[in-house]
Amino acid sequence: MAIGNTAAYANLSRADIEAFGAELDLIRSDVEESLGARDASYIRRVIIAQRTLDVAARLLIVGSRSKAAWLVGTASLAYAKSVENMELGHNIGHGQWDWMNDPEIHSTTWEWDMAGASSQWRYSHNYRHHVFSNVLGVDDDLGFGVLRVTRDQPWKPEHLFQPLRNLLLAVIFEWGIARHGYHSDMERADTEEAKRAVSATMLAKMGRQVLKDYVLWPMLSLRRWRRTLAANTVANLLRNLWAYVVIFCGHFPDGVQQFTPESIKNETRAEWYLRQMLGAANFKAGPLLAISSGNLCYQIEHHLFPDLPSNRYAQISVRVRELCEKYNIAYTTGSLPRQYLQTVRTNFRLALPDGGWAAVRR
Questions:
Q1: With 70 as the cut, is the pLDDT of residue 106 above it?
Q2: Which one of 104, 181, 241, 331 has the lowest number of neighbouring Cβ atoms within 10 Å?
Q3: pLDDT tens for residues 66-76?
Q4: Which among 359, 327, 325, 323 has a CA at the least distance from the CA of 23?
């Protein structure tokens, strides 16, 4: 059930929570003071590597006649798109690299290789989700408006189709994110002119994405346009599935909590930190899996410090875990398969009313 009082749930005194928050503030200040050339070099190397892999994959897809080469090229393109989506687009969009003052690598100028407009996503994600994480009726990312993710959400007969909705969401994940950002922007548009501008932004970005992936790239491939069209379609599908798995593993495994709107009334910064801790989950990953997931294997650290560079999350996690042990706060983590299978189990369970099949028959 959703938490109405985070302090009582965590069994912490007001003084403990404020001390916990002060130690997290210290972690933030330590990282901010140490940012420098090595961090800037990291993100620039990732950009170069991602773009190089993208070009190499496309050349392999078009330049080779063998099926095996097409498969390798398509898999490489899917990986390049995944890195661009998460380690670059998502993290740059959070402002993690704004401190560099590089206009090419800035949250206000970077446009990712996705159907949704970055500007619309930044509001729905950076503000609605990260500020109000897991607050029922406020955080629109809770189930993305199509899934029941807690028993606090009233069951409806349409939820019986939730497993199919979940599968569809995974397949068209980038379009779901685009829709999500669009609706968040529409909610704050206060005039008809503003609403038209929101619609125009969404349609323009979707149009450019479709034109690039399914018209221009195939045209450039001349007689091999079918190979490129198929590769782009499969690569986008694989990228969507991977992004979906990573996001769900960070937000819906066992141990991740939801909160009532009352829980955030007069919320202090330290209480906000505590809510982030309780409302996110990690999965275990080495360096390769970390960069493949945009370092969102450290979802807890990301929710605590969404605008700190992702390459620092691994070292931050060591100090965060020590704090969790000190204050006896749950640090939810597990293997990637375990975390994902938990989300699938929850999805099937919540497709049914609280009384299970017996309630359906009634």
A1: yes
A2: 104
A3: 999 999 999 99
A4: 323
